[in-house]
Amino acid sequence: MRAKISVERIVHEYFNPSTWQRVRALDGLSLDVPDGEFVCLVGPSGCGKSTLLYLIAGLTRPTGGRILVDGREVVRPGRDRGMVFQEFAILPWRTVEGNIGHGLEIAQIPRPAKEETVRRYVALMGLSGFERKYPHELSGGMRQRVAVARTLAADPEVVLMDEPFASLDAQTRNVMQEELVRIAQHERKTIVFVTHSVDEAIILGDRVVVLTHRPGRVKASLPIEIPRERRRWDVLGAEERFVRYRQEILRMIREEFDAQERAAEAVRA
Amino acid sequence: MTDPGRAGLRRAPSRYLWFTLRFDRLSARALPRGRAAAVAGAAAAVGLVLAPFVLFTAVWALVVGVTRWPEDVLPSPSAVARAFGEVFAKGILTVYAGETIRRIVLAAVTGVAIGIAAGFVMGLNDWIAALLNPPLRFFQSLSGIAWLPLFLIWFGFSDKTIIVAVWYTLVFPVAFNTMLGVRTVPRLYRYAVLTLGGTWRQIVFQVLLPGAIPYIVGGVRLGIAYGWRALIAAEIVVGSGGLGYLIFKAETFHLTARIIAGMTAIGVLWYLTDYFLLRPLEEATIERWGLVYR
């Protein structure tokens, strides 16, 4: 089967104005994501995980290499690739409803269908009663749920998520994770999910991809072979495979972190 | 099931927000309390605004009473009030104030449009902004009044000269604020709408414009305030009607009380415009947009 997303030897450099240097964020990274797969990206901080999402979204152009989605090269952002940002990027002058329905509005979905979808996501994200509120009247967690709902409501085939649950409290996060998995399976979305949390990656991903320290490449790719029905927080602790995956991924991130430290020291010396 | 009442309500704020905000707030403030309470509240607010002016007038009357300067040097408040009544009764005030108002409205409507458009172009394009910034700052230091001799040569003693002088003063603050507003809209908002499939047109009208609104409104308020001053100055120089001409003409006949009456009219007109139109607009957008981080 042809990959839904095909990242081919991507090199990305950017100019850092504060150090007056070119920084290489990604160094020949290649990655294929089959249609309908839920892939989680983990790696030491600053390894270029977010950069990769921006590149797939088409918000940044790569220095070298190319990215194909459905066999077509990504040159600009598009409705087929939705993105949830780490910071709440919802518009402060739109209400909860207005934000969630924004993508549908842009797609010129007729009003009744739009309102129906908005209502569904409002209920799904536990935002009932807040439809008419403005973002500054919401808690941080609620704002982020609005952002997730906005992206999903627009119904993109590919969903790019940049640590979307990092600012949520533990309970809400668990509920959102379960909902996301359900939506991903039910609507057959291809999801690229960046996270700092190894546990979250194992719970969510069909596969966990570990990146090296900067400049980032793929260090390892681990298919997670725990059945979906066993990936619940309450039973996962007892799952032997979960503990093994966790140890292995943490070890690899640790390796990369140490290598990064050594490299930094070498530069200082 | 759609609740028809709610569906109707839902429509209003999103699209007509700008125009409805003020009235929402006014009625919300007035309605729930009784009529008498509302009237009392309004009276208290007016009293608070007038109090410093009353005090000022009292001091003025006292100075006139003690010094007994001749009326053409410093007329008493009552003489000014008489002069005011006279110009009003003769219809001069209405005609001249009408001229001034017509000019400020004309200049403001067109100048604000020019300023917002220019500000958007500078806000959207770094190169144009970098190129235009130094000359704009240079020209901003030359007040519109400093240009009047040149405008007089170009456009003669006409309305054109006045309008251009007001434009000149008004466009800069509007353009600079709009540019600043456009540039302060977080890049992430643009990115988010792009990943929803937004076109650049949608980015301009659904992200940059609403995001810059608080700045634009602030710039408009400032611009019209500057423009108002330039207008009076230009009317004095051009001398074809208007409140500026009224007070200047009064000087040639040593009608000091009439000068002060005209100045009062200029101040009051501005105060009313600012208090009832510009300030509420500014407050409403900033508050409702939630862009003030409390």
TrEMBL record, chain B:
TM stretches of this protein: 36-63, 104-124, 136-156, 162-182, 203-224, 230-248, 255-273
Domain ABC transmembrane type-1, chain residue ranges per copy: 97-278
One GO biological process term: transmembrane transport
Keywords: Cell membrane, Membrane, Transmembrane, Transmembrane helix, Transport
InterPro entries (UniProt xref): MetI-like, MetI-like_sf
Source organism, top-level taxon: Bacteria
Compartments reported by the entry: Cell membrane
Membrane topology designation: Multi-pass membrane protein
Gene Ontology annotations for the cellular component aspect, listed alphabetically: plasma membrane
Short name of one Pfam family: BPD_transp_1
Family according to the record: Belongs to the binding-protein-dependent transport system permease family.
PANTHER family reported for this sequence: ABC TRANSPORTER PERMEASE PROTEIN, ALKANE SULFONATE ABC TRANSPORTER-RELATED, MEMBRANE SUBUNIT
Protein name (record): ABC transporter permease
Organism: Candidatus Segetimicrobium genomatis
